Amino acid sequence: MIWLAWRRHRLSVLIMVGLTAALGLWMAYVTHSYDGLVSARIPTPSEVAQLSDLQNQSTVIALLLLFLPCLIGVVLGAPLIAGEYRDRTNRLAWTQSISRTRWTVTKWWVVGLASVVLAAALVPVAQWWSGRTSLQFGVSLFGFAFGRIQPHTFAVTGVAPVAYTLFAFALGVTLGALLRRTAWAVVGTVVIYGLLALLMATTIRPVLAPQVFVPFAEGGTASAPLTSDPQYPWDLGAGFRFAPGTRVPAGSPSASDIGQRCVNLPTGGPACLATHRVQIGEAYQPADHYWALQWRESALYLGLAVLLFGVAILAVRRMRE
């Protein structure tokens, strides 16, 4: 059964291996090109043009790295069951004294293991590439700040890409089992994966670890908190909180509600904030929270992948031949 599963899907796996290897070689080429151009002397106009081209290539690479887990889910996950149902090859397996559960589990872990290995193999290269381009060469991908905790770098380094890949693969398999149409499973995988990634980066990840809040000084600015990590913290934007030690009765308005009401007053906004003991400032995730966020977010994605795996088994067991 293992050999059959590999024979059935080896072409798709080999295609993804080739694409992953090509992406890794491209990252090595761009980094090597930066090494040859970046120096202490003032660059010539032609070198400035080459540096601009390399930065554009780095942005494209970053986009491909962000989309790679979803691509694996589309190429390897979506056709895993839906393709068998379309070609009616599932009937052959189910008439050979192989249970549907064993058939699903075997195919799932054979191709799923290949997907995880692909993602894990690319992570060290992406970690090296992002560190060299962003920190050493000062390339600001997508115009955002430097640092591995920044959303565009966080999602392509550490252990998170492996969890993303396993989730995307499980999502593609499950949608294929439920919808029984590869094209529909592909569309559903792209849409759901993209929406969850956006929700995670904007809403869930910022609260997976305690935030650092820096109240604005009188000049209206807040400085980033100092950490033991030399990289930049992740700026989560301005917000409100109750001053430390403030007792907030149950059912009272939140600090954000009170703060918004105070700052919208024509005059007396600072006095209103002081009366309610509400502070306005900047929230951060320090750079040394990187690994805590990586492990907690990965655990969420792995939990979702396990849940989807169970749904896929139930869908196959209920599937009509």
Strand portion: 5-15%
Residue-averaged pLDDT, rounded?
A: 83
- Which class best fits the helix and strand makeup? mainly alpha
Question: Can you give the helix content as a percent range?
Answer: 55-70%
Helix and strand run: HHHHHHHEEHHEH
Uncertain residue segments: none
Radius of gyration equals: 25 Å
Spatially, the strands of the biggest sheet line up as 1-3-2
What's the total helix number?
10
How many strands? 3
Principal-axes shape call: flat
Number of domains: 2
Largest sheet: 3 strands, antiparallel
**Spatial gap, N to C terminus:** 19 Å
Describe the structure.
The chain is mainly alpha-helical and 321 residues long. The chain folds into 2 domains: 2-208 and 289-317, no CATH class; 212-288, no CATH class. Helices cover 66% and strands 7% of the residues. The chain is built from 10 helices and 3 strands; from the N terminus they run αααααααββααβα. The protein has helices spanning 2-37, 45-87, 90-94, 100-136, 151-154, 160-179, 182-204, 255-263, 269-275, 290-317; strands at residues 212-215, 234-242, 278-285. It has a 3-stranded antiparallel sheet with strand order 1-3-2. α2 (45-87) runs antiparallel to α4, α6 (160-179) runs parallel beside α10 and α8 (255-263) runs antiparallel to α9 (269-275). The longest helix has 43 residues, at 45-87. It is flat and about 80 Å long. The two termini are 19 Å apart.
